[in-house]
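Reading group handout, session on sequence-to-structure problems. Before we discuss, look at one worked example. The prompt was deliberately terse, the way you'd type it at a terminal:

> structure C-CAP/cofactor C-like domain-containing protein

The input record follows.
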Amino acid sequence: MRFGPFCFYYPELLGQFENSSLSPFNCHWSEIHDFTPGTPIRDFFPLDVPESHQLHSFISQKVSTKPEYSVVPQTFGSRPAGLTDEKCLALVFSGWENAVALIAKAATKPDLRLVRTWQLQLTVENGRRLLQTMHYDAQLAKGPVICLEFNGPQVVPLLQSLTQGNEDFYVSSDSGVADRQLDILGGIVDMQMNSQ
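And the output record:
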């Protein structure tokens, strides 16, 4: 079996996500449970980065599978090959429009990859544990936070330059901090998923 990120668009899709209380940032396509661990043969693989194409039979209905039109951000997933050890966590406190804008800016940087995304409600307590500061308490109290994991050479300074001085964003201070924060975030996400 092969798996890949959701890559689909039609004009009503984002509204349907919102009406269903689903977030386009919670696409965990690469987090597949292997029910046969320890076997020498892998049963599943990630899809190669999809080629842009359109479903010709649906052109009249404005349906597209081009990644640049997808409502769900195109990620490389949690186990991609060829990534560097340099990681960065970016938090967006001000809604999906700013997250989409940051992703678009980051996409213009060579070798910078969006690995995973999440949208979740972070309590102030969990936010403090994650960020090791009280500076973002007011932003955390406003509502859901969009979390973006990026990877690539010089990823931290690149993302810091893209968000410089904007209180709607948090960017890890270095790759080691990002690695620790991603571990903490994984635990918070798991707790939220198990409590639902």
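Points for discussion. First: The CA atoms of residues 34 and 42 lie 9 Å apart. Second: The longest strand covers residues 113-120.
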